[in-house]
């Protein structure tokens, strides 16, 4: 690994219930890169993302995130530098918490508002992030009453509250209708244009959910990396067909990728 990488994965494997479900895999992410991890259901994408978010220890190998090797550092401190959004995040958020507080409490890497004193700065950052992701008007609502799409937006705002150096998103557009997906992708791309935006890794199994501005792609199949590298050289008809076991034609238009079955 080079000293400047955002993360470095070395010979990592994960076994569950005696079965190898991931790896061994190796890869490295550099500052400013925006990655997508693509692969069919069950490929191991979420497992990999949980490892990268330091929520799951690999069975073998080493993971170095933001210069810290998992297992050798205080994970509580490291996790404040990583923003995560996905099924696990959703479970961590109390049903009855106010949306505004869901975002605000992330500043202290805790869930559930209690007695903390929040700075005006934190308050305005929470509002700005809700605005960025188009859900400012939901600030006063109870989180549990939001639609799936609204929850995803709130989760992303929450993930960004600590100004993380690494952002991990597991299927952020999953379950959204086409209008919701397009709006979220546009907002995400807009946000990512900021030179200070964190390195991001987005997991999806839909080629259409890859945001404009994605620089690199990693294709995962049966727990192993099939191909990885610059997005346009990885997300091709040949590679996607092989990984999804279907003859697929991939096209690239205005920064977006589109897929359709052929034959
Ligand atoms: N806790 C677990 N125990 C046993 N098997 C698991 C567990 N979590 C995931 N798996 C299995 O590991 C594989 C990869 O799962 P996952 O990472 O969720 O895939 P993806 O996100 O790509 O759909 C799947 O075959 C899944 O059934
Ligand atoms: Mg998954």
Automatic annotation (TrEMBL):
Keywords: ATP-binding, Nucleotide-binding, Transport. It holds the Pfam family ABC_tran. One of its GO terms (cellular component) is membrane. Gene3D superfamilies: P-loop containing nucleotide triphosphate hydrolases. GO terms for biological process: transmembrane transport. SUPFAM superfamilies: P-loop containing nucleoside triphosphate hydrolases. One of its GO terms (molecular function) is ATP binding. Residues 7-247 form the ABC transporter domain. InterPro entries: AAA+_ATPase, ABC_transporter-like_ATP-bd, ABC_transpr_CbiO/EcfA_su, P-loop_NTPase. This is Unannotated protein. It comes from freshwater metagenome.
